[in-house]
Specification:
Layout lengths: L10 E2 L2 E9 L3 E7 L5 E7 L1 H4 L2 H16 L8 E5 L6 E5 L6 H8 L4 H20 L2 E2 L8 E4 L2 E4 L6 E2 L20 H4 L6 H17 L9 H10 L9 H10 L10 H7 L15 H13 L21 H10 L7 H12 L11 E8 L6 H19 L7 E8 L4 H13 L3 E5 L5 E2 L1 H9 L3 E4 L4 E2 L8 E3 L8 H11 L4 E7 L3 H13 L6 E7 L6 H9 L4 E5 L3 H14 L4 E5 L5 H7 L7 E4 L11 H11 L7 H18 L6 H8 L4 E2 L4 E2 L14 E6 L2 E7 L4
Helix pairs in contact: 4-6, 4-9, 6-8, 7-17, 11-22, 12-13, 12-21, 13-22, 14-15, 18-19, 19-20, 22-23
């Protein structure tokens, strides 16, 4: 629970709001007292989303769906107003943690508890299906743990079985890792999809991991569709049952009612419900909730602030100062601060918070590590130069040498230093799961700027990834062939050397095919050449060719094959291919290629103009790739620290507030969904190769 802000309502449909339970891009969930005095969780949708007729229709559907479902293991709806300016939905308040929180903190649950968990969730799903609905997002974060058993929540994307979804054509709805194969392929998902998700949830509860691994959504979805589940750690007594739930063919799975029977030994009562530490945690949360007083009315005038004791509003403004854009006066302040004070900061009686930089400074990724360091240094200096800043920042850089062993050593060092408030990084392409676990155990937020693969991304831990995953980058390419260079005949070259990336890109185009366009897919074996695919594109008179793969070297081979075949149409691929190896090996054949990437070029982005000037002034060099994003990561942390407290910021407070912020940085706007996944649409950029260099075209939706 977090305190109400000055922007939060004090009443919602007769409910008195007491505290914030959570927030996301769509709205806020409040703990409130109902008109009858009971506690309720009230979800309020932001007005800007409610103004969208389609979104309001979806929320209306959620309320209708939730009202239609009843049972002991479903959280009941107690009130709703779907036509209000800011529509809301109230449910009973469950003070227990989510299954994701419980397993993340205590580890896997006992086998008997998992069986009881599954049996009761299956009963809940049977009630959902009996009401003619499909939940479509059964996952650990949507399962709350009460003293007598679990509660299934969040019918936000539930719909009538067989109804047409009110979402973009071909969109994958749900959470990767808990989607059935038919759902992962953006196909129709019926009740059998919920049973598959139940199998994934039980695997997580029993083994501590999902059956299809972690990492980028593309890889998880590919494994869901094409590979067997990883059931390592699942007790033998549950293996056959969970395996049946995870059958690839929906027809081979039991119904929810049958699943409940399979999980109830001998047709009798399910195993005893026992979650270690649950009673104490619920008692603590219940006491805290019941002890909350009704909030005071909103102030009508300015905050009173006695001398030397800044008001909460001033504290929040000071926290926001850490995220100020380096434009105009911001740059001047940094330069003036450097001349007047070697530390470039306000008076030394302010508290100092240390931000750790976890980067490869001497290994194969040292160029990206150096860009991280310089961007972070500029952000720290800019924050410290502001006279009104309520606290100072310091930067501690740790070199992991680009190795998994080094990354774990750095995570240990930063986690064990009490002065470190949060971490920027790691900077390498892959964040080892052991590193994420280490930071999670110490409650230390790790704000990942550049890593393409981040273990645990989107979970309820401390990992905060501010770049969109590679899995959403094809959206930029689809926009280009629909709105910039419309193509009627699109030829996809599917590279067998990288099946996960090629499947993702191909599937994205199949699911969101432009109206009237013809898609042709030409597979290329992992050891094969691209000549036949290039000649096929020319013969088919293709307007656009998409290299569906993730290798810069093989992408260059594809570019040369297309040039040799005489293809002159639009040529596209995604970010992993846009690397020095592609530019070097493709040569002239790479001219005109268009790429969808996740990083901003600060040399071209208008919002980063002053940042670029400051970078040149301090380092006598232009900013490198990912430097502007590192600057924004420090600003995000500074805002979270300021919102926590100007004098007593805590690691846990920073973690909670990071995901609630709407942060306009110099590289992009950073906001998060309720699932703690960054909103990707603000972080996809288009580039075109001109003169052997990648020229930034801008945010894909603005090109």
């Amino acid at each position: 629970m977090r305190p109400l802000t000055s922007e939060d309502p004090r009443t919602v449909g007769g409910h008195r709001t007491l505290a914030r339970l959570g927030a996301g891009g769509m709205g806020v969930v409040y703990l409130a007292r109902s008109p009858g005095g009971g506690l309720a969780a009230v979800k309020v949708i932001r007005a800007e989303h409610a103004a969208d007729a389609g979104f309001r229709a979806r929320f209306r559907r959620e309320a209708e769906a939730a009202r239609r479902v009843s049972g002991p293991w479903v959280v009941p709806v107690t009130g709703a107003d779907t036509e209000a300016r800011e529509p809301w939905l109230a449910t009973a308040f469950v003070p227990g943690p989510s299954l994701a929180e419980a397993v993340g903190a205590q580890g896997p649950l006992p086998a008997g508890t998992v069986r009881a968990l599954g049996a009761r969730l299956a009963v809940a799903l049977a009630a959902v299906h009996d009401a003619g609905l499909v939940h479509r997002d059964v996952k650990p974060g949507n399962v709350l743990l009460a003293l007598d058993g679990p509660r299934l929540i969040d019918f936000g994307i539930a719909r009538h079985d067989g109804a047409t979804a009110l979402t973009a054509t071909g969109a994958v709805i749900g959470t990767p890792g808990y989607l059935a194969p038919e759902q992962a392929s953006a196909g129709e998902s019926g009740p059998a999809g919920d049973v598959f998700a139940l199998g994934c949830v039980l695997t997580y509860a029993s083994a501590g991991h999902g059956p299809f691994g972690q990492g980028p959504a593309a890889g998880v979805l590919f494994r869901t569709v094409h590979e067997d589940p990883d059931l390592d750690g699942l007790p033998a007594e549950l293996l056959d049952t969970v395996s049946a739930f995870l059958a690839k063919d929906p027809a081979d799975r039991p119904t929810a009612a049958q699943a409940a029977e399979l999980l109830t030994p001998g047709g009798g009562a399910a195993d005893r419900w026992s979650v270690p530490g649950l009673s104490a945690l619920i008692a603590e949360r219940s006491s805290a909730a019941l002890a909350l007083p009704d909030p005071e009315p909103l102030p009508t005038g300015p905050d009173p602030a006695p001398p030397g004791n800044p008001s909460r509003r001033r504290v929040l403004m000071a926290g926001a100062a850490g995220a100020v854009l380096l434009t105009g006066g911001g740059t001047a302040a940094w330069l003036t601060g450097r001349r007047g004070d070697p530390s470039g900061g306000p008076p030394s009686d302010r508290p100092t918070y240390t931000i750790g930089l976890h980067a490869d400074m001497s290994g194969p990724g040292r160029a990206v590590g150096l860009a991280h360091q310089r961007g972070a240094q500029l952000a720290v200096a800019a924050h410290n130069a502001r006279a009104e800043a309520a606290f100072r920042l310091a930067l501690r850089t740790e070199d992991d040498t680009g190795t998994a062993e080094g990354a774990l050593r750095v995570a240990d060092r930063l986690s064990e230093r009490p002065e470190v408030l949060a971490v920027v990084g790691p900077s390498t392409d892959s964040t080892p799961e052991a590193v994420v676990t280490r930071y999670g155990r110490s409650g230390l937020a790790a704000v990942v700027v550049a890593a393409r693969s981040s273990a645990g991304a989107g979970t309820q831990g401390t990992l905060c990834v501010i770049r969109p995953p590679d899995g959403v980058l094809p959206a930029g390419l689809i926009h280009y062939v629909v709105n910039v260079r419309p193509a009627e005949r699109i030829h996809l070259v599917e590279d067998g050397a990288d099946p996960a990336s090629s499947w993702l890109i191909t599937n994205s185009f199949r699911d969101a095919a432009p109206t009237g366009a013809t898609l042709t897919v030409h597979p290329v074996k992992s050891d094969g050449g691209f000549g036949p695919a290039a000649r096929a594109a020319v013969s088919a008179r293709a307007d656009a060719v998409v290299y569906a793969g993730g290798s810069p070297t093989r992408g260059a081979l594809c570019a040369r094959a297309l040039a040799d075949a005489g293809f002159t149409g639009t040529r596209l691929s995604t970010g992993p291919v846009l690397a020095p190896a592609f530019l070097r090996d493709a040569g002239d054949a790479g001219e005109g290629w268009v790429f969808s990437e996740a990083w901003t070029d600060p040399l071209a982005a208008p919002a980063a103009k002053a940042f670029t000037a400051a970078h040149r002034a301090r380092f006598d060099a232009p900013p490198g790739r990912w430097s502007a994003e590192a600057y924004d990561a420090v600003g995000l942390i500074a805002r979270a620290a300021g919102a926590t407290s100007a004098t007593d910021a805590k690691r846990s407070g920073v973690v909670q507030r990071l995901f609630l912020l709407d942060h306009q940085g110099i590289s992009r706007r950073v906001t998060f969904h309720g699932s703690r996944q960054v909103r990707s649409e603000a972080g996809i950029f288009l580039y075109r190769i001109e003169g052997g260099k990648a020229r930034w075209l801008g945010l894909y939706s603005k090109v």
